[in-house]
Every structure is written in structure tokens, then in C-alpha cells.
Amino acid sequence: MLFLYIDPGTGSLLISLLIGFIMTITFSIRNFYYKVIHFFAGKEYKGTNDFSGELVFFSEGKNYWNVFYPVLDVLIKHNKRFVYLTADREDPGLQIDSEYCSSHYLGNTNQAFFVLNKLKAKMCITTTPQLDILNWKRSKNVDHYCYLSHAPMDIHANKKFSFDYYDSALCGNDFHIANLRQLERDRNSRKKILMKTGCTYYDLKNEGANEQKEHILIAPTWGDRSFFVEHGELLLEKLLEHKHRVLYRPHPQSWISEKELLSIISSKFGKNELFEIDKRVDNVHALSKAKVLITDSTSGIIYDVAFLQKIPIIAVDFEWDDGGYESSDLENPPSTKYLLEDFGRTITENEIYNIHNIIGEVSNVKMTEEIIDKHIFNFQNAGSVAAKQILSIFKGLK
């Protein structure tokens, strides 16, 4: 019998070559698929893609209007012209009544990307990540692409390479900037202009009213990025055992994808007078009456609840598969960890057994302006700052 020996170095090289070959084939097939989609999608839009020399904003739809509006409002007030493009027919941006704005509906997302891939503009600002990764390509006729952060969260939960091909990014906090710089160094990717901007939608948010606090609010995410699937029943048992009034607010997707889990929770705890499942569409009641929030360490609501409602937060940390996410390449933990050191606490799944005492420890922490300034730039004034930063970049382009 003949045995072949391959030294570890050669073996590793062969594996890398094989992976590279598979990835090349995969991306080629995917690119062909998107080209076919774009060929048919592009036949819908009858307008122009030529906004040469202009400042262009692109939004995927109305859900991002509260991010764009504080910036656009400042531009209009200062008589600065811009173009607003959207992939949503119901986007409020299409109703902007100003001589300084030209707004256009491009069609659905695929149709919009077909237009954007051939866009002619001096600068394009967007909240859409993964430029030049999937079906949105950099246009050779756009001088500068700028990413406008649409949430105060760090970049850990974004897909890999989400920001690598932007020329600039308007960042939420120092942690955001540090992590982008680390990825640039490790990947030897282009060095971006990183601005200290903040989160623009906070400009439109009012702080929560000081109402009587009644319940412990449990508001997890869903799926494999939530502790609640495995440990939710234990948490509820321990809270109710110590006579806490509990309001459980499932993630909207849970009503679709986790019906069995909700049925189990309802069956087991539904008759307890201290327990309620919140089925309201909005979260006003849930937040206004909450003494403490318990959620996942990956939750997107941690910042909003801390800064606007000033409700102490307990976040349950757990192992999740971060393959394919920026988290897998980042050295530092998500920035929520540092926020919770100042206003709340991060716990392990095992510490759920001691949740009663932990609630007592965090209930007295107070949110301060110093804490807010440490964790977010330009709180409730980011729209004005973003507009000035964008204009500064725009004027500096040749």
C-alpha cells in the first residue's frame, strides 16, 4: 500500500486554494444571478441616473426616514441642494416640498441597485451597508461614498466587509471608530474618513416621562441570537418566584417564527396574575412602566432604553455563532458591554438563578449626561453635525 505524506504547510496551502476556488465559483454564480435580475429590473425606472456633480442621498425606504430627516432638514434650512433617491414608494422623502431637493423613486430594491450601479454623482450618502459586496456596486462615476450610521449599536452584528468599500463613515461613538480602524489594519483595506457624528434619529426622540414604574420588562431578540429560547422559562420562574410583576414583550418576528415557544410560555405562566405577554403594537406602555429591562447582549434596543427611557438594563450574554459577521474579526467586545458597566449589568446564563438580587443591585443606578456623552456623540444634535460634516467632505472633493 502506498502512503503519501503532505507536510502541514503544504496541506494548509492546498486547503486555502480549495476554499479560494470554491469562493470564486460561488461569487461568480451569484454575480451572474444578480446581473440577470438587474437586466430585467432596470427596465422599470424611466428617470435619470445622471446627477453629475451633485450631493445624493439613497434610502432603502421609509423605515430610515427618521435617520435622514434630521440631516436633510438642516441642509434645506441652509439652502443646500441635494438629490434624494429611494427604493420605497411610501418614503416620506418623496414628499419633500423644497426647491433645494429633487426626490426620485427608483423602484424596488433590485431596480434601485440597477440604477445606483450606474449612478453619476459627486457624493452618495446612505445607511445601506455592504457596498461593492453583493448586488450594489461602486459606480466609477461617483467620487465619494459615505455611510451614515442608522443605529447607535456597534458594528459586531453587521455582515463581514459591510463598510470596507466606503470612503467615509459617520460614526456613533469612539468604539465604532476604533473597531473600523482595526478592520482596516487587519484587512489592509482603504483608510476611511471617520467622523464623530452620533445617531441622528435621537434628534427626534423625546425622553421618557417619569411615570410610576410597575414591572420588569423582558424584551429579547429572537432566534439563535437570543438567550430566551433556552433560558426564558427559568428566568420567568425565578422572577415570579420572588413576586416580581413581569411583562414579556416578544420580538415581532417571534410571533411568526417562534409560535411554539410562545405557546409554551403562555400555557405555563399565562394564569399567573403577575405575568403578562405584551401584544400591543407599540412599545410605549412596556417602556413607560418598566423598572428594569432584561434583554440579550446583542439587542438593538439597549441604547434607546438607556438614553431615552433611562431604565437600568440587565443583558444576558451567551455564545452565538458569529461566523460571517464582523464580530468574528473584531478584538474588542460590543460597545454595549461598556455601556452596561456604567448603566446596568451584563450577566451570564448561570447568573439567572440570582436574578432577584441582581435586579436589586442595578435598580438604583442613574443615567447622567457624562455617561451619555461617553457612549454617543452629539446626543440629540447629530443631524446638524452630520450635515456640516457631509458638506465639508463634499466641498473637499475635486
UniProtKB/TrEMBL annotation:
UniProt keyword Transmembrane helix present: yes
Pfam family, one: Glyphos_transf
Residues annotated as signal peptide: none
One term of GO molecular function: CDP-glycerol glycerophosphotransferase activity
Record key words, sorted: Membrane, Transferase, Transmembrane, Transmembrane helix
Any single Gene Ontology cellular-component annotation: membrane
Gene3D superfamilies from the UniProt entry: 3.40.50.12580
Transmembrane keyword on record: yes
TM segment ranges: 12-33
Name of the protein in its database record: CDP-glycerol:poly(Glycerophosphate) glycerophosphotransferase
Protein source organism: Christiangramia gaetbulicola
